[in-house]
């Protein structure tokens, strides 16, 4: 604090305000209703970790059912109560609820809120050189809407009829008719309420991220000097802003169909021989609306992980990111394409086959920008002085998982092949690798890499290595066998296949293997949890710039206060990837170092820039070097 | 890709950081991005309308009889549904009333433009006046919509024979209506209702801003940017109505 006061001489009123703020901080304004983007980021992270544990635990319960259908699981009764039948088996209805909640939690609460929410909040102001988000208040609201949504979704786990059970996509008519299954009752209503709150949270957050990146970049931080993390968060927020409202519309219409007797999605339905009055709606319409969000959603999940990976790989390979512009371009390309491929989820929903071939073509085109990213990661690593920090390992893990999972996407994108593979474990294997695990690895890379900035301490690297290798091996052991199970024709979301000779005899051992691998992988996460919480309190004190990184967040104090920089915000003179520049003394040159101070490593063009810097203090330049 | 290094000097280039590009405040940007996302919500609803509507046949005199009458077999012609005007009972005045409503809403956009313009001049009296007219326009539109809805709900003399039994049904609710397929009334209520909610929240926002103008908040602040921000929202709501009007009444 004394440091801040010495700077008071030349701070503007804005900073004074923040200074002021720090003095009146109470526990509530600092940790609970905080408007500090760093604390809000941590709130999202903690809530995300909580949800990841719940989501993971749910998956273990249904994995045990799949791997060991004959096992006596009455020992779970203290926790699951009536959901364990008197014979000690899992209740089939609850199985459906488990897969539904696992999907919903992992996609929305962990990999959207937990990933985007954590790192967009934490990193955007720090890396663009801003004191906070454009609106700290809206940012706080964003977290608390998410929290309210979490409370509703969490409570739905405990109601008598169970949580929503129509799959995470909640297709009508199953989800629209309360009498369809127990999970379509109160659980479904709570699901919809929670999602409506969640969408509000996402929009509040997204609008904030976008305006912050546009308006609050520090002097010299042009778009072509933005770290790729920020590009990724920015484009992710735009995708969310355009796709979540469509889910909102779809959910509102579904609520009306459920509760007020309308017929937007319902037509010609008979229950117990009785015709329902609803006529003229279209269930396929819901699928279109849902997947207009649902498909961009998978990019909302993976793109922040891409951004984090770009940053971590470049820093730890001690090399400039290969093809900065291509990386930005491919993000933009993926973002654009993500809006026009949604119907590839519906090849077998009764869509016009010609339309299917159009969506197939567009889907396969996504392989191009995705491959650009993968090749650029590999070429960045090529001949680098690689430092294997845990964050780096997780980033490289992401690249590996993205390749393995992405290749099967090329099969699934073909509308003809999809007829065989649709809704089998092949699809499950595909998206768990390419989007689930890859995004999770990106999130882990981010946590390990920015842990020192978040908590001012280092996270233990040795435990990090153990965590990485167990998780990396575990993820492949879980999801690789699923491809075979899927090609054999196992449908997803089925409680049991024991009545099929082939499945119960030939593939049962593979399923048991997957289950054991899943248990080990889940258990490995507790190593991380211990490491994470132990290091927050007992970790080694972090140095100023532990990874010798170029970006702005490492120029803040080790434990930055509200307002981030005690003095003036630093000015940016160069792009963030000047690693191992020929001629330079160090193998990194932070963004805040002017070209005039590095004559030994400047190119001719940069020397011209240096001259300009001298002329006018802070220079103004159109383009970066490259 | 090194291009020219333009000489800076005091004036900086728009996107190089350290300033808000094009001098747009973050609040105005946020409003624009919110409207962008809201536009997608309405687009989803209007696409829903299109999908359901075109799953039904059009009215065709050669098949369905020379004289148009309501039927669940085909989508009704809006001219025959919306032909009432207050105090002119029994007359066939297609789309007259809704045209008046639309005109009022568009006029309120004009007064909003004048309020924004007065805000630029920092003329408090003028801002007050034009904001008030905008609020009046918004409330009138909502009142008209309430009449339109109640007329739609009450229905017409002829009614529609039920399929299952011979009883006649008059007017409309979410489950049944005399004008045509169930989806017709469902969509009408949902989409015009969703738009009406937007108009209502717009009126509330306008009123809050009006109040702040009257008590001099923006004079103290030194600018009337809030008027501009709610103005953006108000024009958006107007624009959406143009589409809703086109979809439900014109085609």
From TrEMBL, chain A:
The UniProt record lists the keyword Metal-binding: yes
Pfam families xref list: COX1
Key words of the record: Electron transport, Heme, Iron, Membrane, Metal-binding, Respiratory chain, Transmembrane, Transmembrane helix, Transport
Ranges annotated as biased composition (Basic and acidic residues): 11-21
Domain of life where this protein originates: Bacteria
Topology versus the membrane: Multi-pass membrane protein
Keyword match Electron transport: yes
Predominant localisation class: membrane
Region of interest: Disordered: 1-21
InterPro entries according to UniProt: Cyt_c_oxase-like_su1_dom, Cyt_c_oxase-like_su1_sf, Cyt_C_Oxase_1, Cyt_c_Oxase_su1_BS
Transmembrane regions listed in the UniProt entry: 44-66, 94-124, 144-171, 191-216, 228-256, 289-310, 322-342, 354-375, 387-412, 424-451, 463-490, 510-534
Localization annotation: Membrane
Protein name per its UniProtKB record: Cbb3-type cytochrome c oxidase subunit I
Source organism of the structure: Mangrovivirga halotolerans
UniProtKB/TrEMBL annotation, chain B:
InterPro entries: Cyt_c/ubiquinol_Oxase_su3, Cyt_c_oxidase-like_su3, Cyt_c_oxidase_su3-like_sf, Cyt_c_oxidase_su3_a-hlx
Domain Heme-copper oxidase subunit III family profile: 1-251
Membrane topology: Multi-pass membrane protein
Keyword Transmembrane set for record: yes
Localization per record: Cell membrane
Keywords from the named record: Cell membrane, Membrane, Transmembrane, Transmembrane helix
Main location: membrane
Listed Gene3D superfamilies: Cytochrome c oxidase, subunit III, four-helix bundle (1.20.120.80)
Pfam families noted in UniProt: COX3 (PF00510)
Key word Transmembrane helix present: yes
Top-level taxon of the source organism: Bacteria
Transmembrane segments: 29-52, 95-118, 130-149, 187-211, 232-250
Family to which this protein belongs: Belongs to the cytochrome c oxidase subunit 3 family.
Name recorded for this polypeptide: Cytochrome c oxidase subunit 3
Organism phylogeny: Bacteria, Pseudomonadati, Bacteroidota, Cytophagia, Cytophagales
């Amino acid at each position: 604090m004394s440091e801040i006061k010495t700077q008071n001489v030349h701070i503007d009123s804005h900073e004074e305000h923040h200074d002021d703020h720090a003095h009146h901080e109470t526990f509530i304004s600092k940790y609970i209703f905080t408007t500090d983007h760093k604390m809000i980021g941590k709130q999202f992270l903690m809530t995300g970790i909580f949800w990841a544990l719940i989501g993971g635990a749910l998956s273990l319960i249904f994995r045990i059912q799949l791997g060991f259908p004959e096992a006596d699981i009455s020992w779970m009764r203290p926790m699951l109560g009536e959901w364990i039948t008197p014979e000690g088996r899992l209740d089939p209805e609850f199985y459906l609820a488990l897969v539904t909640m696992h999907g919903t939690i992992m996609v929305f609460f962990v990999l959207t809120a937990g990933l985007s929410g954590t790192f967009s909040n934490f990193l955007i102001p720090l890396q663009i050189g801003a004191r906070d988000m454009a609106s700290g208040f809206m940012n706080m609201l964003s977290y608390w809407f998410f929290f309210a949504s979490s409370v509703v979704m969490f409570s739905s786990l405990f109601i008598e009829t169970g949580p929503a059970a129509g799959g995470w996509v909640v297709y009508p008519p199953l989800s629209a008719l309360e009498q369809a299954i127990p999970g379509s009752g109160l659980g479904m209503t709570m699901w919809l309420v929670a999602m409506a709150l969640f969408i509000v949270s996402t929009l509040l957050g997204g609008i904030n991220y976008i305006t912050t990146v546009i308006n609050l970049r520090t002097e010299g931080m042009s778009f072509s000097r933005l770290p790729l993390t920020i590009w990724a968060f920015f484009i992710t927020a735009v995708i969310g802003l355009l796709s979540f409202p469509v889910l909102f519309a779809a959910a509102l219409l579904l609520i009306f169909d459920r509760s007020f007797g309308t017929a937007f999605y319902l037509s010609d339905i008979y229950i117990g021989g009785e015709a329902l009055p609803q006529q003229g709606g279209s269930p396929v319409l819901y699928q279109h609306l849902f997947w207009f969000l649902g498909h961009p959603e998978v990019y909302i999940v993976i793109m922040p992980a891409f951004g984090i990976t770009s940053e971590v790989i470049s820093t730890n390979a001690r090399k400039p990111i290969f093809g900065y512009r291509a990386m930005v371009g491919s993000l933009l390309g993926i973002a654009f394409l993500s809006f026009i491929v949604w119907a590839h989820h519906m090849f077998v929903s009764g869509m016009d086959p010609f339309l299917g071939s159009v969506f197939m073509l567009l889907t396969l085109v996504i392989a191009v920008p995705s491959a650009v990213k993968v090749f650029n990661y590999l070429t960045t690593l090529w001949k680098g002085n690689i430092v294997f920090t845990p964050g780096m390992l997780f980033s490289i893990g992401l690249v590996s998982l993205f390749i393995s999972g992405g290749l099967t996407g090329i099969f699934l994108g073909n509308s003809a092949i999809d007829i065989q593979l649709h809704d089998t474990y092949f699809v499950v294997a595909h998206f768990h690798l390419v989007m689930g695990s890859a995004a999770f690895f990106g999130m882990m890379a981010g946590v390990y890499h920015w842990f020192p900035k978040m908590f001012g301490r280092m996270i233990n690297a040795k435990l990090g290595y153990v965590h990485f290798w167990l998780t990396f091996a575990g993820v492949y052991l879980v999801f690789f066998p699923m491809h075979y199970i899927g090609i054999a024709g196992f449908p997803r979301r089925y409680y049991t296949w024991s009545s099929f000779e082939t499945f119960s005899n030939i593939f049962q051992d593979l399923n048991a293997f997957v289950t054991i691998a899943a248990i080990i992988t889940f258990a490995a996460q507790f190593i991380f949890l211990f490491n994470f919480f132990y290091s927050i309190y007992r970790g080694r004190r972090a140095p100023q710039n532990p990874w010798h990184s170029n970006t702005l967040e490492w120029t803040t104090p080790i434990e930055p206060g509200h307002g981030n920089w005690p003095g003036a915000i630093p000015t940016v003179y160069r792009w963030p990837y000047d690693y191992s520049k020929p001629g330079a003394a160090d193998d990194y040159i932070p963004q805040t170092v002017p070209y005039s101070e590095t004559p030994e490593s400047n190119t001719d063009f940069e020397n011209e820039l240096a001259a300009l810097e001298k002329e006018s203090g802070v220079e103004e330049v159109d383009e970066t070097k490259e | 890709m090194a291009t020219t290094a333009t000489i800076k000097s005091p004036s900086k280039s728009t996107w190089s950081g350290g300033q808000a590009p094009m001098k747009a405040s973050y609040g105005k940007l946020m409003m624009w991005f919110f409207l962008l996302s809201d536009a997608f919500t309405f687009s989803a609803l209007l696409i829903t309308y299109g999908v359901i509507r075109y799953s039904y046949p059009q009215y065709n005199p050669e098949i369905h009889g020379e004289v148009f009458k309501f039927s669940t077999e085909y989508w009704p012609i809006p001219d025959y549904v919306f032909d009432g005007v207050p105090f002119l009972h029994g007359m066939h005045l297609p789309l007259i009333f809704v045209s008046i409503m639309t005109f009022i809403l568009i006029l309120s956009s004009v007064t909003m433009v004048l309020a924004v313009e007065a805000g630029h001049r920092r003329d408090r009296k003028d801002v007050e006046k034009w904001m008030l007219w905008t609020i009046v326009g918004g409330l009138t539109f909502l009142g008209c919509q309430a009449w339109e809805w109640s007329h739609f709900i009450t229905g017409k003399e002829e009614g529609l024979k039920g399929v299952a039994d011979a009883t006649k049904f008059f007017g409309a609710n979410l489950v049944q209506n005399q004008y045509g397929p169930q989806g017709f009334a469902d969509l009408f209520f949902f989409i015009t209702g969703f738009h009406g909610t937007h108009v209502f929240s717009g009126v509330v926002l306008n009123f809050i801003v009006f109040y702040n103008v009257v008590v001099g908040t923006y004079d103290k602040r030194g600018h009337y940017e809030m008027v501009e921000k709610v103005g953006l929202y108000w024009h958006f709501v107007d624009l959406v109505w143009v589409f809703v009007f086109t979809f439900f009444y014109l085609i």
